[in-house]
Amino acid sequence: MKTVLKNAHLVLPEETKHGDLLIEDGLIATIGGSIDAPGAEEIDCSDKWVLPGVIDAHVHFRSPGYEYKEDWETGSKAALAGGVTTVFDMPNTKPQTTTAETLKSKRALARKGSLVNFGLFLGATGENIDVINEAEGIVGVKVYMGQTTGQEIADPDEALDTMLRDLFERTHRVIAVHAEDETQIRKHMKTYKGEEFPEIHSLIRNDSVAYTAARRAVHIAKKYSGRLHICHLSTKKEVALLAKYTDDNITAEVAPHHLFFTVSDYAQRGTLLKMNPPLRSHADVDALWEALIDGSIPMIATDHAPHLKKEKLRGYWDAPAGVPGVEMVLPLLLDSVHEKMLDIHQVVSLLCEGPARVYGVKNKGRLREGYDADLAVVDMDMMRTVHNERVMSKCGWTPYDGMDVRGWPIMTFVGGRLMMENGSIVSGHNGREVELV
Ligand code: NCD
Ligand code: ZN
């Protein structure tokens, strides 16, 4: 099967080429020039930009166990709508993905339900290091240092250091850490007991909560030469911490909600914006942008954490933490190109090449001959107001509702197959589990 994307702006790592791109047997066969491939389907991409499909290395697709919030089909359709062609799913499902059996059954669910490519994390329990070392094909290990949705923490201090040391010492896998200090969280919860303002979320889980846990993880990783990845880095203090450790063994990601909202947005959106780690100050947001622009943070991942709107509106203490994002991250970043925050190559670096490099994903993340034809075709000039009603995620809402965004994916290809066109899902073909280098 051959397809030619005609007359496009082809976004390569260092340059943009103008011309055609040939897809053959699911791979990128030829990039650039005028391609005449007999028998190929031709798709006119004049004035459109062709990017590698986005790799979202942090999603919660909720299956098994919480399918009323999201499942592999709805989550992956939301991904396609947003130009995302690969997702890595987190283990805080029900049951948690922490054993060989639960990994196997989640894999079966993803294979059956996912329209995009996928990778799976195993959760660390402190007792499953052998399972972790023996598991085939996982993208990494997830460690929750602080309590969050679907993750209770029994004894915050004693077991944690031992677990981290064991992981860094005894496995070569990427250890992806949710870095928030449980002891401080518990103390602050007592302080704000009885208060109902959503703003207290950012005080209970303040920047010291994040920094303390991140520093602890960094120190143990350094000591035992481990491979640490800090999830959803959100504070200026953590950026400064990471700046001291520039080697490839310590990496981090930023989530889009920490780039596009600050604490002042609680006033309008309330508990809808409750997530862990929480929203931060303008100074923190500026530091995150700076670190992404100068390349010291290599990637963005959404932490797509769908909950139903009615759950989110329960009031501060009962509202679950987490916001959806898989559908919106590419449009938001394309908009930031118009705002002159990033250029298009930086967007591709942060959403495609960065995650592929950090996790060692094979054959993905850039437009290169021989790589998988996972592609997003974008219309940089399309203006659209974001509406909850248009959301594909089962949760049915987005924190970006009402925002005007310029730059949208209009086609998404997975493995050379057109899956999304103008917001509609046009194929039911399933994605594949990623391979690692
Ligand atoms: C996540 C969820 O809902 O699964 N929530 C969140 O606020 N980020 C869990 C998590 O990643 O902490
Ligand atoms: Zn998460």
CATH architecture field of the largest domain: Alpha-Beta Barrel
Structural class: alpha/beta
Count of discrete alpha- or pi-helical segments spanning 4 or more residues: 14
Mean pLDDT: 97
The dominant shape is: globular
Range of helix content = 25-40%
Low-confidence parts: none
Bound molecule kinds, no repeats:
N-carbamoyl-L-aspartate, zinc ion
Alpha carbon gap, first and last residue: 26 Å
- How many distinct beta strands? 17
Assigned CATH superfamily of the largest domain: Metal-dependent hydrolases
Strand coverage percent = 15-25%
Q: What is the CATH T-level topology of the largest domain?
A: TIM Barrel
The total tally of domains equals 2
Largest sheet: 9 strands, mixed
Please state the CA-atom Rg, rounded to the nearest Å: 21 Å
Q: Oligomeric status of the shown chains?
A: single chain
Under CATH at level 1, the class of the largest domain stands as Alpha Beta
Structure description:
By secondary structure, the protein is an alpha/beta fold. It folds into two domains: 2-50 and 369-383 and 404-425, Urease, subunit C, domain 1, CATH 2.30.40.10; 54-359, TIM Barrel (Alpha-Beta Barrel). It is built from 14 helices and 17 strands. The chain has helices at residues 72-81, 100-113, 129-134, 158-170, 182-191, 200-204, 207-223, 236-243, 257-260, 266-269, 282-293, 309-312, 329-338, 344-359; strands at residues 2-11, 16-24, 27-31, 41-44, 49-52, 54-59, 84-89, 117-123, 140-144, 175-178, 228-230, 250-254, 299-300, 375-385, 404-414, 417-421, 424-425. Strand 16 and strand 17 (424-425) form a beta hairpin. Helix 4 (158-170) crosses helix 7 and helix 7 (207-223) packs parallel to helix 8 (236-243). The chain starts with a strand and ends in a 12-residue tail after the last strand. Zinc ion binds at residues 58, 60, 90, 303, 305.
